[in-house]
Amino acid sequence: MTLLLLYVHRPAIDTLVEIEVFLSANPSEIVTIILEDHVQTPNGLKGVFTKAGLMKYMFPVKNMPKNGEDWPRVSDMVTHNHRLVVFTSVESKEQTEGIAYQWNYMVENKYGDEGLEGECTNRVNSSALNDKTKALVLVNHFRTIQALKPHLMMACVDNSEPLLTMLEACALAAGQRYANFLAVDFYKMSKGSGGGAFGAVDKLNGELLCGKDDVHSCKVH
């Protein structure tokens, strides 16, 4: 269950409606949204998901794995139509709006330039990467944006061999756990070998599913 995060500047409702259309048209797909939450209106976050028609897909907080328990099987999530997993950065909203607080379930490495220095260490908000009471691992691998100008050309380099190297470093730092989620800039850009972000996702899914470095090597039972 690996996701490339996308940052967009548009009304939230527009993006959420697109997600509803996608989930409706693809009944076996699962979407995860990890929010840097700045919604201050009481129940405003839940309200926009309700308005977009997404609550019927929401994975219930009460079913979230506690203390490092295994995540439900994809087939079970599809069967129960729990196909939208949403995390918020605001702790109180888990109780008030029924939206999971990210740091109760996930660890994450440093983002921006600090996350490209060869070491994989946790960001300030996150528990230590090897905290196995948190079932999920998110790896960031993108540069700090300077003056709102993303490093377009450097993304080709960052999304190639250095990305695969960082995934291995973070797996080691996380207690031999490969990332469930991957965040990069310009995910279609890469150079050289390694397959870019798509190759990285194939590797992560392979490691998570069957312990192989390419999901295409996993046998279907």
Write down the overall mean pLDDT.
90
The secondary-structure element order is: HEHHEHEEEHHEH
Helix content: 25-40%
Described by the principal axes of the CA atoms, the overall outline is globular
Structural class by sheet pairing and helices: alpha/beta
Pfam families: PI-PLC_cat
InterPro entries: PI-PLC_domain, PLC-like_Pdiesterase_TIM-brl
GO molecular function: phosphoric diester hydrolase activity
How would you characterize the overall build of this protein?
- The protein is α/β, with parallel strands linked by helices.
- The protein has 2 domains: 12-104, no CATH class; 106-217, no CATH class.
- The chain is 30% helix and 11% strand.
- The protein contains 7 helices and 6 strands.
- The protein has helices at residues 12-25, 44-51, 74-79, 93-96, 152-158, 161-173, 196-210; strands at residues 31-35, 84-88, 100-101, 106-108, 136-141, 181-184.
- The strands form 2 sheets. It has a 3-stranded parallel sheet with strand order 1-2-3, with no helix packed on it. A 3-stranded parallel sheet has the order 4-5-6, covered by helices on one side.
- Helix 6 runs parallel beside helix 7 (196-210).
Descriptive key words:
7 helices, PI-PLC_domain, 221 residues, 30% helix, three-stranded parallel beta sheet, 6 strands, phosphoric diester hydrolase activity, alpha/beta, globular, PLC-like_Pdiesterase_TIM-brl
